[in-house]
Amino acid sequence: MDFKLTEEHKLIRDAARDFANTELLPGVIDRDNKQKFPKELVKKMGDLGFLGIMVDPKYGGSGMDAISYVLIMEELSKIDASASVIVSVNNSLVCYGLEAFGSEDQKQKYLTKLATGEFVGAFCLSEPEAGSDATSQRTTAIDKGDHYIINGTKNWITSGGRADVYIVIAQTDKHKGSHGINAFIVEKGTPGFDIGPKEDKLGIRGSDTHTLQFNDVKVPKENRIGDDGSGFRFAMKTLSGGRIGIAAQALGIAAGAYELALKYSKERKAFGTEICNHQAIAFKLADMYVDIEAARHLVMKAAWDKDQGNNYDVSSAMAKLFASKVAMEHTVEAVQIHGGNGFVKEYHVERLMRDAKITQIYEGTSEIQKIVISRNLIKE
Ligand code: CAA
């Protein structure tokens, strides 16, 4: 066992920290207020290799491991969870899915652009009536020989209006249940594919979330990912990796709030001393630190499992379940430690508190993580 980061990992973490502090921090409150997508910053993150972190360099990626991925995600999320969710979805739901399950042609055509940030990707699984119950896909893809015709609606799609490439999950044969589902690559601008209005959200307001409509959208057969009927398994496998990214995001949100609360508590005075000297505040800081460190261990373990080639369905679910709980609970505490200032935007902790909530919802709610974990316990 070795709990130390390598020198290379430290350099990667420091590069992400530096980028977050110099590039993401200055406009983060404005982007949150105005729901502004960080277009230029996404391009810069692409240039730094943050959009194809684990992708093989032969497809334009950075060729790094999952430990590097979570280090980058944590640092970006300490400052701007809207930017980090774009990174997470592009890396683990889109690039990973294409690299692991796509054809060589699909990799050459799409992955090479997604890994460098020339393209942004979106992952379209959720529907008005199929959120947690992902098997109940209402979107249909009818096989017409050399192409499919897709009809349906997808909801809450991250980067929905800004993406260039969409991975769309749809039902091709409802009698086969989860074995009748496929995943398709749909390009923006395909006739019949319409982007609905942008959602006005509680948190991660700088990310771009939309409903998407598919009305007789013609998709060539070569854009189906993997064998016929493999789409549900594809979605579950990519989501297992996605949950590592979101767990690291939750960790970063919690750690960012903790760092701000610690600093504030050493500066703010009440009753004749810095508030960190009051046990009521000191014990909050201790609880935050312990929980964040425990979350970090679970996140690292899930990333390590992925790097080792171990199954990471359960370790990623555990990491996301716990880190998102820690993020929600301790961002509330960080606001409390800041008192009245915590309620004011310029102190950043209220934004982190709002951003934390979604980590308990997307890429599988906390209740879904408990289904994944408990089913595996019972099976063993
Ligand atoms: N790997 C491989 N295969 C898997 C798998 C996995 N991780 N999980 C399930 N499967 C297989 C099962 O073995 C089963 O196959 P067989 O029929 O051959 O046995 C098949 O898939 C169906 O599995 P279940 O019976 O377990 O399916 P279920 O209907 O009970 O649902 C679930 C399982 C875990 C609840 C699943 O529906 C789920 O994960 N739901 C949550 C969906 C989700 O995370 N949505 C997030 C949206 S994406 C998003 O948020 C992105 C964003 O923009 C940020």
TrEMBL record:
Q: What is its EC number?
A: 1.3.8.10
Which residues are in the Acyl-CoA dehydrogenase/oxidase C-terminal domain? Answer: 229-377
Q: What class of enzyme is it?
A: oxidoreductase
Superkingdom of origin = Bacteria
UniProt-listed InterPro entries: Acyl-CoA_DH_CS (IPR006089), Acyl-CoA_Oxase/DH_mid-dom (IPR006091), Acyl-CoA_Oxase/DH_mid-dom_sf (IPR046373), AcylCo_DH-like_C (IPR036250), AcylCo_DH/oxidase_C (IPR009075), AcylCoA_DH/ox_N (IPR013786), AcylCoA_DH/ox_N_sf (IPR037069), AcylCoA_DH/oxidase_NM_dom_sf (IPR009100)
> Can you give the residue ranges of the Acyl-CoA oxidase/dehydrogenase middle domain?
122-217
Cofactor(s) listed in the protein's UniProt record: FAD
**GO molecular function terms noted in the UniProt entry:** acyl-CoA dehydrogenase activity; flavin adenine dinucleotide binding
- Keywords carried by this UniProt record: FAD, Flavoprotein, Oxidoreductase
Q: A Pfam family for this UniProt protein?
A: Acyl-CoA_dh_N
Q: Which SUPFAM superfamilies match?
A: Acyl-CoA dehydrogenase C-terminal domain-like (SSF47203), Acyl-CoA dehydrogenase NM domain-like (SSF56645)
In this protein, which residues make up the domain named Acyl-CoA dehydrogenase/oxidase N-terminal? 6-118
Q: Would I find Zinc-finger among this entry's keywords?
A: no
Q: Which family does it belong to?
A: Belongs to the acyl-CoA dehydrogenase family.
Name of the molecule in the record: Cyclohex-1-ene-1-carbonyl-CoA dehydrogenase
Taxonomic lineage is: Bacteria, Pseudomonadati, Bacteroidota, Flavobacteriia, Flavobacteriales
